[in-house]
Amino acid sequence: MEPVSTRPSQSASPDRSSIGWGIVGTGTIARCFAEDLEYVSRRASCRCVFARIGTAAQFVARHGGTAHESHEALLGDEKVDAVYIASPNTSHFAIAFAAIAAKKSVLVEKPLVATAEEAERLRAFAAEQNVFLMEGLWTRFLPAIGFVKNAYNPQRSVKSVA
């Protein structure tokens, strides 16, 4: 099956002044990520998506890009500079490893992987390949942040929060 494409005017700039994102997954967090790309000051856009071909086609109809039926096809697409992995947690390691091997920068939705051993393997491989790897985590929503917000009092010093 051929990839489904929309917005054919979108292509990676030869001078790399824009970032072409490949998104793995089409769930709520992937949709939020694609919508947020519009707010990035440096040009960034959704270039490709991998998911079940029906949901990927619906996703690109709304956000642009190309729908691929395999993550290998997405990773082989020259328009993809970086990959955002928002697939089920059990697939994070394999897809991130493949993305690093394809020399794509990688942002993995939390959790990065299932085990510390997998995290170390990804870290080492990314370093070896000189590829950026990061876990996507909004610290804003961690319980510790809520504690600090509730404990903060501008009349007291920060030391009194601890």
Explain the overall architecture:
By secondary structure, the protein is of the alpha/beta class. The chain contains 6 helices and 7 strands. It has a 7-stranded mixed β-sheet. α4 packs parallel to α5. The longest helix has 14 residues, at 116-129. The protein is globular and about 55 Å long.
**Low-pLDDT segments, ≥5 res:** 1-15
- Tell me, briefly, the overall form: globular
Gyration radius (Cα, Å) is 18 Å
Which structural class matches the secondary elements?
A: alpha/beta
The largest β sheet comes out as: 7 strands, mixed
- What is the CA–CA distance across the termini? 58 Å
Strand order of the largest sheet: 1-4-3-2-5-6-7
User: What is the chains' assembly state?
Assistant: single chain
β-strand percent reads 15-25%
Mean pLDDT: 82
Total DSSP helices: 6
The count of DSSP E runs of length 2 or more, i.e. the number of strands, is 7
The percentage helix is 25-40%
Element-level helix/strand string: EEHEHEHEHEHEH
Feature tags:
globular; 162 residues; 7 strands; 7-stranded mixed beta sheet; alpha/beta; 20% strand; 36% helix
What is shown here, in short?
This protein has 162 residues and is α/β, with parallel strands linked by helices. The protein is built from 6 helices and 7 strands.
